[in-house]
């Protein structure tokens, strides 16, 4: 197990380093002057030169990259030119919204998809199975921002149960804050639940064909008991892997939904930074999202290896 963990941690470090290389190359080494892009073509040459010096663009590329990575390792992501604040502080504030939103969406997705997938597997070829498959097709085909618009029209405009956007802040209490995040979380969860339900169905069907399941049925165990005690724990291994990937995509994919609901989260910060040409913020947020995706995938691999010894034995 220790050798498996060492290999996974080494892979995590190498992948995160490659992510920083890609982000640095795209935003700083590509042709063009980042300082001129941020200030505009009508900016005075003195202002452009001053910004280039502030951003360190007058230094060699390896020195800039080393300084940037060293700053990230110490929590320094630079200073936003638009907000005149450290990027790390901005990101921390926005993560207080984006992370709970992603967690809510993941819980809603798993809570909806896993029972539906088991239902479809237990009723293969019947009406329940067809209904779950139809839900999966619709959920995959319809993007999350369209679900967001429909939810706003239904529950905010027509029924008036929820606010159409905005966030009251955690200082107003957990209940109002979670209520403001509920509709965005549902909009994010529905497409992911559609994918997860189909994967759960496939994993459950594969498990139902195993010999130990037939043995359990031959012993006289009820079908529901077999599903919950024997099929579900083994089917959850691939489902857990997909859940980890989905959490990473939920954090990164909240950009559009947060803008639909005007939530001041990490996605909206990234969207505004792109519109304002604040490349320092864009660089910090993108590399943070990339590292989060790599970290979540590594944690999922370790969790799956702890539950199922076959991957680490094969390794």
TrEMBL record:
Name under which the protein is recorded: Peptide/nickel transport system permease protein
Pfam families the UniProt entry points to: BPD_transp_1, BPD_transp_1_N
Positions of the ABC transmembrane type-1 domain: 95-300
Residues spanning the membrane: 101-122, 134-157, 177-199, 231-257, 277-300
Membrane topology: Multi-pass membrane protein
Keywords: Cell membrane, Membrane, Transmembrane, Transmembrane helix, Transport
Keyword Transport: yes
Family named by the database record: Belongs to the binding-protein-dependent transport system permease family.
Annotated PROSITE patterns: ABC_TM1
Localization terms from the record: Cell membrane
């Amino acid at each position: 197990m220790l050798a498996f963990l060492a290999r996974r941690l080494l892979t995590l470090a190498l992948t995160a380093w490659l992510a920083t290389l890609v982000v640095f190359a795209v935003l700083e080494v590509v042709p063009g002057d980042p300082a001129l892009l941020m200030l505009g073509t009508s900016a005075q040459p003195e202002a452009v030169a001053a910004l280039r010096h502030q951003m360190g663009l007058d230094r060699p590329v390896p020195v800039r990259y080393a300084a940037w990575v060293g700053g990230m390792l110490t929590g320094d992501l630079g200073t936003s030119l638009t907000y005149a604040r450290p990027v790390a502080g901005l990101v921390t504030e926005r993560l207080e919204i984006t992370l709970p939103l992603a967690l809510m969406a993941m819980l809603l997705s798993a809570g909806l998809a896993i029972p539906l997938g088991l239902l479809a597997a237990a009723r293969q070829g019947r009406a329940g199975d067809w209904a779950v498959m139809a839900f999966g097709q619709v959920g995959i085909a319809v993007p999350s921002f369209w679900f967001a618009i429909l939810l706003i029209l239904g529950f905010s405009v027509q029924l008036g149960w929820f606010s159409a956007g905005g966030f009251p802040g955690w200082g107003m209490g957990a209940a109002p804050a979670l209520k403001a995040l509920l509709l965005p979380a549902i909009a994010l969860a529905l497409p992911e639940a559609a994918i997860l339900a189909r994967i759960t169905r496939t994993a459950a069907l594969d498990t139902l064909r195993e010999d130990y399941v037939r043995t359990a049925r031959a012993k006289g165990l009820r079908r529901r008991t077999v599903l919950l005690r024997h099929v579900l724990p083994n089917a959850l291994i691939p489902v857990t892997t997909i859940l980890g990937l989905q959490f990473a995509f939920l954090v990164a994919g909240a950009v559009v939904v947060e803008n639909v609901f005007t939530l001041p989260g990490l996605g909206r910060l990234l969207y505004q930074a792109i519109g304002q040409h604040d490349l320092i913020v864009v660089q910090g947020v993108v590399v943070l999202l990339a590292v989060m995706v790599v970290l979540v995938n590594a944690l999922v691999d370790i969790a799956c290896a702890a539950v199922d010894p076959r991957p680490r034995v094969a390794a």
